[in-house]
Amino acid sequence: MNAHMSSLKADLHLHSTASDGTLTPADVVRLAAKEGYTLIALTDHDSMDGVAEAMAEARACGVMLIPGVELSCGAQREIHILGYGMDPQDEALAAFCRARREQRIARTRRMVDLLAEHGAPVAFERVAELARGVMGRPHVARALVEAGHVTSVSEAFDRYIGTGKCAYVPKEDVRVADAVRLIHGAGGAAVLAHPMELKMGETALASLIVEWKSQGLDGIEVWHPSAQNNHAAFLHRLAREEGLLVTGGSDFHGQDLHGGRIGDGLERWREVQSDAQRLMERIPRGS
Ligand code: AMP
Ligand code: ZN
Ligand code: FE
Ligand code: FE
Fold first, then answer.
1. CATH superfamily of 2-95+176-282
2. For the chain, which residues score pLDDT lower than 50?
3. Ligand 1 atom nearest residue 45's Cα
4. Which of 139, 169, 172, 285 is deepest in the core (most CB within 10 A)?
5. Is 224 exposed, middle or buried (0-12, 13-18, 19+ CB in 10 A)?
């Protein structure tokens, strides 16, 4: 591990077909390797199903891969907690992901019903075909594009399935404390994903983060495309004051979607070496 640490190029937030990315886990790893990344993490929504395939490809490509996950928390507000370094075989985490997968299927059925009521019918079966792993709104969005109701995924979110829109259905609430406990129980570290996507003022955000830290949160994703430079500076300061880990990730979902480039927003991550080192020290199973 340390031999490679001197020339790190890292992206710790990548999605694959195990959730709503468009590339397979192996293809994500290959693309990252081709672009010179040396430390990556696969962080699919509510699933570690892609990790084994990614791990095998990472070995073949000579890339360090941290097993990861991105757990959806919150109900009215989407709060995403990244987990790093968990045992993919951990039974409690696997059971949680299985339950979430089932809940997401039921939720998608409800969204499909609402879409029909709002004059934009899509077949649930088609959405299920588009979802090769855990089902999510991007699969519904792609079905809406295919059916000709919208011309882009982002229009699908803006008009129908974005938070609070007419066919939006929230996921069942999961408490941040419970997500953190699951991640810790599986040997991982818990990091708040893209804090700026919470769309809160700095004071309110800081006090929430401090509260989550008291529940075991280990770090914050300071470097993410959603964080403008002034936001990142604020998050970085907060992490230092609170002794939280700092991570960075592009939230890559495949080249044709938002989050379309590995490393997006991470050019500014100067302390990648020491930040990654601290994260690796926190998780027993690095790569
Ligand atoms: P879900 O987990 O089913 O609630 O879907 C959330 C995912 O949808 C996010 O992780 C993004 O990949 C995607 N997403 C959310 N908002 C938008 C948007 N406005 N445009 C495109 N994709 C989005
Ligand atoms: Zn996603
Ligand atoms: Fe997220
Ligand atoms: Fe993500």
1. Metal-dependent hydrolases (3.20.20.140)
2. 1-3, 287
3. 2
4. 139
5. buried
Beta partners for 83? Answer: 69, 190
Within 10 A of 177 (CB to CB), how many other CB atoms are there? 16
Confirm if 57 and 64 have CB atoms less than 8 A apart.
no
**Tens digits of per-residue pLDDT, 105-145?**
999 999 999 999 999 999 999 999 999 999 999 999 999 99
Single pTM value for the model: 0.96
Rounded Cα distance, 259 and 245, in Å: 23
How far, in Å, from the CA of 128 to the mean position of ligand 2? 16
Element (H, E) at 136: none
Q: Structure tokens of 99?
A: 């339950």
- 80 CA → ligand 3 middle, Å: 5
Sorted by where each begins, the domain ranges of the chain are 2-95+176-282, 97-161
Task: Render 146-187 in DSSP notation, one character per residue.
Answer: HTTS-SSHHHHIIIIISTTSTT--PPPP--HHHHHHHHHHTT
Pocket lining: 162 vs ligand 1, CB cutoff 6 Å: yes
Q: Closest Cα to residue 218, out of 72, 92, 71, 84?
A: 84
How far apart, in whole angstroms, are the C-alpha atoms of residue 49 and residue 267?
A: 29
